[in-house]
């Protein structure tokens, strides 16, 4: 994939950190209501139980804290950019699954785990410069960038938890916005160009796919959907044809078919 020639979107680190904590708090409040029987039910994500899915959600924060407790990589610049991160997830799935099962087995009190993780995050993260490098599993990343990736982890798995339990855990608006924007920008990174305009109101508009570029007026190829449908498409929770049939996606123009480009994350 050729590197993007566009300037990367800017995220405010303080707002991102606040969004991460807000979404985590929403999830914690909901998980606290689940009975042991509900926690032991299948999650719908491979062999994970709901308990294991709930434990996995804590890793969105604990990975930040654990990396901050290590020395910063002795590098002049990051090894992985924010827009590269979505394409690194599939290769790590096996290790993540094993770590999640072990975490859940070692922490039978799920609410206590959430409390420990939140306290550690709130102690370590505030005040650290956004350019501080972290030795993540995929390579060195800026703290500010890694925090944005946490909104994807939290929002996507909040959806999974809602689906598995019937809960209605809310989505923090800023977390939903950051997640939507990162995945929209990742599409433009994967398929650079200007022939298709993808709109995910009110959070993101990107142009992608090689071909004739429009310069004014209504573009000839337009895709539009809501934020949660876009996130589900980008992460493989649903399929392009299904959402078109359900009228959750509108697509006009001969190039406005994104089926071959989705999902972005495995």
Task: List its salient traits.
disordered N terminus, four-stranded mixed β-sheet, globular, two-stranded antiparallel sheet, alpha+beta, 10% strand, 47% helix, 9 helices, single chain, 266 residues
Give the DSSP E fraction (strand runs of 2 or more residues): 5-15%
Summarize model confidence as the mean pLDDT.
94
Please tell me how large the radius of gyration is: 19 Å
> What is the tally of beta strands?
6
Distance between the termini: 16 Å
Low-confidence parts: 1-5
Name the helix and strand elements from N-terminus to C-terminus, one letter apiece.
HHHHHEEHHEEEHHE
Q: What general outline do the C-alpha atoms trace?
A: globular
Helix content: 40-55%
In spatial order, strands of the major sheet run 4-3-5-6
From the helix content, strand content and strand pairing, which structural class follows?
Answer: alpha+beta
The tally of helices reads 9
Largest sheet: 4 strands, mixed
Describe the protein.
This protein is α+β, with helices and mostly antiparallel strands and 266 residues long. Helices cover 47% and strands 10% of the residues. It contains 9 helices and 6 strands. A 4-stranded mixed beta sheet has the order 4-3-5-6. Strands 1-2 form a two-stranded antiparallel sheet. A hairpin with a 3-residue loop joins β3 and β4 (204-208). The model is unreliable at 1-5 (pLDDT under 50).
